[in-house]
Amino acid sequence: MESKLNHQAIDAYAKAFSKKICQSFFYQNSHISGQEILNLSKFKQTNLIVLKNLFRKWKKENAKLQSPYFDYHNEEVKKAMKDFMNTLSRHISIKKEHFEPLLRESIKDSILLVFSPYDFFSKEINQRDDSRISLNDLKDLKKYIKINDFLLDGLIEKFKSLKLGVAFNDEAFELFNEVCGQAEEQPEDVQPYLDAFSEELSLSMNDVYLESGESKLTVEEVPVGSLNDKLKQKEQISLADRLSKGSGKSIKQQLTLNQRFMFVNELFDGNQKNFLMAVEQVDALESYEEAYSHIKKTYVAKYEWDLETEEVQEFMELVGKRFS
């Protein structure tokens, strides 16, 4: 599945959000401290991600400390460096010109965590300065993540079960995909977080996700006969192929995390409860024909599904596998 996030709009929102917050805070302050960062935004997750990104930058700078004259790998030296970091963390002091880009980056990360946790954690794993990620790195990340953290918990448990202290990024990413495929817990409802962001600066689903740009079928625009014909035509083209690859598993068992997000946001107007109810209803039916009829009557018209889109076709593919 290709991401449907509107990255250009998210960048613009993060820029406007950070500018507004910084103008308000730095109007009477020359620097911002760690405690002030924790209380900066009403959306507390963003504040924590600011600290996460700040300390990642510090670790990156610290990693550059190399010398032919001193042993930075000595245990005593490493302990002293850790103590130094702990002391430094209690004395954060950042000017506006350095803080605003950090906040902007953190707002974008926060939006990813809420609306596409798969993309957020993939970024955390793959876009690292080091080619490896350790169990301690994941545990450190856990300190800052309070939303959709079940995915991070799953990856930590994977590392523990395999007795991995450290893994190359591509290996860790494969393990993360396994976690996503096996996860039974659902991503959190995005509406409360839309409201939380909007307390600072208005944010809607249309700001976060791209529009398809294609016209959608509506009951008023499409005669019943035409709608039936188009649905049947779509099914005839791909049904044999789908059934040849059928799994017999329920739709819920087949769903990946990416698919959950795609279907909820693109087919069910962001309503996770309605999506889960639909999956349960379809899973409970007796045959593909019965499921096909139910979907046509219940969801195509209600949600104005465009039958040409990847989302509808992928959903129907799972339905075909369910009854094969």
UniProtKB/TrEMBL annotation:
Protein name in the entry: Uncharacterized protein
Organism: Marivirga aurantiaca
